[in-house]
Amino acid sequence: MIVLATALLCAPAAAQTATPQSDLPASTQSADPAAPPQTLTPQTAADDQGATEKDIVVTGSRITSSGFNAPTPTTVIGEDQILKNAQPNIFNAIAQLPSLQGSTGASTGTFSTSSGTQGLSSFSLRGLGPIRTLTLLDGQRVVGANVSGVPDISMFPQLLIKRVDVVTGGASASYGSDAVGGVVNFITDTRFKGFKANIQGGITNYGDDKQALVQAAFGTSLFGDRLHLIVSGEYDDEDGVGPGDFGTDLAKGRDWYRATTLVNTGQTNNGLPQFNYRDYAQPYQYARYGLINNGPLQGIAFDQSGAPYNFNYGSNGRPTGTGGVTNCFPANSFCVGGDLSGAPGSGASLKSSLERLNGFGRIGFDFAPDNEAYVTVNLAQVKTSNQPSPGYNRPNLTVQCANPFLPQLVRDRCATAINPATGTPGITQFGFGSSNGNFPDPLVQTDRRQYRFVGGLKGKFEIGSTPWTYDAYYEHGITLAAIDVENTVLQNRYVAATNAITLNGAIVCADPVARAAGCQPINIFGGAVPSASALAYVTPANGPLQRTKLTQDVASLNFSGEPLNLWAGPLSVAFGGEYRREFYRVHGDPYGAGVTALSPNSAAYPADPLLNSALGSNWAAGNYKNGRGKYEVYEGFLELNLPLFNSEAIGRANLNGAGRVTHYSTSGTVWAWKAGGTWDTPLDGIRLRAVTSRDVRAPNLSELFAAPTVTTLPNFTNPFSGSGVQAFQNTVGNPDLKPEIARNTEVGIVLSHPSWAPGLGLSFDYYKIKLDGVVSTLSPDQIVRFCFEGNQAFCGGFVLNSPTQGGNFINVQPFNLASWKTSGFDIEASYQWKKPLGIPGNFTLRVLGTHVKEFLVDAGIANVDVVDQAGANNGNTPDWKWLATQSYDNELFSINLQERWFSDGVFGNQYVVCTTGCPVSTANHPTIDYNKMKGAFYVDLGGSVNVTKQVSMFFKVDNLFDHDPAPAPQTNTGLDVNPALYDTLGRIYRLGVRARF
């Protein structure tokens, strides 16, 4: 479990002479009761950057100077704490910090087909999103794992990580774009000597997500300790969790899923709430093996054997014969209770399977004292797999009564049913919907490969009597990302295959053009599995694919020194420049991306007259498009640290400021700056600090040049008709985007190891962030709703009444429209006892908390109200989030206890809660009958036993009491859970052994 030491809790005097942790024996790293349990702090990190132990390198600053205290709060997680957490991926350990909100991992994005972020481990500080958190490796940028530019932490050399610095404040003036929410910097042990290894396994109490992790690292020095060689490798295999089945059956018997939904009554001004919170909601447009959903025979469903039966709608619902159901909710086509066998929500994976392979090497040569030339190579591969949903939901088929697969009983009913158009007996067709539970389930597989090379120089020199440090490097990174989707339907082929006739005594596809192109008929009435040839036609083996190549080139040169000695100490200076080039190229398959003419000679994707060859978008999901783009960045920075005073009477204070000018080839020149300072007061152990900054985030490749992506909305609520339709969401990039501009302010007070309680550390920091020009998009529902309510600006970007299946669409594009404002405070406390109550060993307490006071989102659209997302547990910014740890260790064993908690919240603060006498419900303030969402409290337990001085065995139990997640109600048929906040897997056991020689 994590035991956290923070820069806020470190005594400044001790920081100047601390020994680098990598040189400390394990048994002495926590020996000083006046120090945090992990003696390494940002002020003692100089050895990682090639400086001496009296030179100070702080991630939140570029200044390298003895005695320097950066004004920006920095949390440091040491190697010992990472090991105690015993996670198969270091990402899982760091993401528990309360200030990290909205991070993504293997448990998020599993419901998606087309996002491309499945299994992508990325951090988000302050709930601002991974794209606004800069993640570094040894202070250097890392090539993105997808077109958003976000790196994958799974690809880092995890066994060599010596510490992780988390800067919870804007750092654009020091590090450039993306550092709006802060910086997460992984520091490797560049002087590691010896051999260490780690083997561990894990499993949930449900018997799934089996995990196996093997890690090893070796380091040595040659030629009089001038040549340093380090290599590491690791393999991690995590089975993942899921999928479940239709209805409410989750994987391995988990019983917490209740198909919780916000059903839309469609009523906005009748005094009753528009949205009702209900469990066991089920769509009434389809069933697992088919349901007649329109016409005189509406309400007839089919069981697995194909036999017809009367569908149980729930809600005392009765079919109207025209597509509606009485006593149900037509706005999103739901009933409550009844037959849930066709609902697909529980069929999504709870966690993607993940397999990763990582190799890392570094060779450094000290060509002069305190000067090193080095080369690093990082090769990594991460593969994931997830099931977004089972079967294939198709709510709006038209079926002919002459279909030979249709049971005779139903054909007879067609002959006697009263035709509403003529008033006479006999109909020839009816509306039909099916979850196609007899189809193979879709599977999304990603394969990301990264090749990263860095060459650099760092060290020290003197000009006159003034010492200077320098750090220069060039990085070239390549990511090759592949997405392959299996068992996905080509929609027009599916329609053709379901329209069967009898010809010359054989059942064939009705459309002669489709027959000539290889169409094979499919029986959609019941659970009979289609023939291999029919499945090959509808879901060909060569399914949707995307191939992406990203490259990143960075050249950086930085200097730091103390050119002047002033009245209170030296004036410290850092300056430098950087060049960066980002490029990506992506292509999809012809059926999804579209081409001017499909090649008739293509064996993988042959031309088909039923498909749209020019526009593509033929798949039910995974319609990846073609695109490419690049931009270049030129920037320079200057940072100064001015000592203001230094005396016993008034204490010690400094003023820290920085400025950075950056030119983007796509959007021009922009400035970033910061100004702040610290004051070590004469009061015992009390420090004050404050910093304010102007930070920037340039739009990434995806936002600028995104290949259009198409997402299927199978049951989109059309307010104009009051019913659900199937539509496509078309998302495209915008090359005219400008950088986002943020204003960050932080003010804090620290009590750091006072003489009257040397093991005590306390801190309180207030933060406020205002972000303007936010690159954002409205949701499809918002676009259509605003048009429906009379805002004509939104009416030109969608079609929802097309007579053809593929004609319905909503266009979504990013603009610099929105602004965000968030504020709150962080609290940290720690205490350490040496030999508590005379017992040999050390006992440590740590508590960290973050309170989000507000998170205001202004869409920047006329007549669209500001929404406060603080406390909305359907998102990622709860009102309160805490992490507490207690640990005891001695020479023989250690025991660790950890609690994770976040507060109760709501589904959304925009809702107006009422049951009767409700005001008019609007898109800005919809009415709802219930708006509460429980928080969660998790307990983790771990420990280790030292078998020998070199070998230890350890265990870890996460979510000890198997706490179930609270429902996160949807307005569609998705899985009602929020993995960004809640543990969705259950209790997890881990066991392993470590060795270090």
Task: Explain what you see.
This protein is mainly beta and 997 residues long. The protein contains eleven helices and 47 strands. It has a 22-stranded antiparallel beta barrel. It has a five-stranded mixed β-sheet with strand order 1-2-4-5-3. The chain is elongated and about 105 Å long. The model is unreliable at 1-56 (pLDDT under 50).
Which spans of ≥5 residues are poorly predicted at pLDDT below 50? Answer: 1-56
> What is the alpha-carbon Rg in Å?
30 Å
Tell me, briefly, the overall form.
elongated
- Proportion of helical residues: under 10%
Largest sheet: 22 strands, antiparallel, barrel
How many angstroms does the end-to-end distance come to? 23 Å
Proportion of beta-strand residues: 35-45%
Q: Structural class, please?
A: mainly beta
Number of helices: 11
Number of separate strands: 47
**Average pLDDT, to the nearest integer?**
88
Salient structural properties:
997 residues, mainly beta, 22-stranded antiparallel barrel, 5-stranded mixed sheet, 11 helices
Can you summarize this structure?
With 997 residues, the protein is mainly β. The chain has eleven helices and 47 strands.
Write the layout of secondary structure elements.
Elements: E1 5-6, H1 12-15, E2 74-78, H2 79-85, H3 90-94, E3 133-137, E4 161-167, H4 172-175, E5 182-188, E6 194-204, E7 211-222, E8 227-238, E9 261-264, E10 275-278, E11 281-283, E12 291-294, E13 300-302, E14 308-310, E15 318-319, E16 325-326, E17 334-336, E18 353-368, E19 371-386, E20 394-400, H5 408-416, E21 429-434, E22 443-463, E23 466-486, H6 491-498, E24 500-503, E25 506-509, H7 512-516, H8 532-538, E26 545-566, E27 569-588, H9 590-593, E28 627-647, E29 651-664, E30 668-680, E31 686-697, H10 701-705, E32 709-718, E33 723-731, E34 740-752, E35 760-776, H11 780-788, E36 798-799, E37 809-812, E38 815-834, E39 842-858, E40 867-868, E41 880-889, E42 893-902, E43 912-913, E44 927-928, E45 936-946, E46 951-958, E47 988-996
Parallel strand pairs: 3-5, 33-37, 43-44
Antiparallel strand pairs: 1-2, 2-4, 4-5, 6-7, 6-47, 7-8, 8-18, 9-10, 11-17, 12-21, 13-14, 15-16, 18-19, 19-22, 20-21, 22-23, 23-26, 24-25, 26-27, 27-28, 28-29, 29-30, 30-31, 31-34, 32-33, 34-35, 35-38, 36-37, 38-39, 39-40, 39-41, 41-42, 42-45, 45-46, 46-47
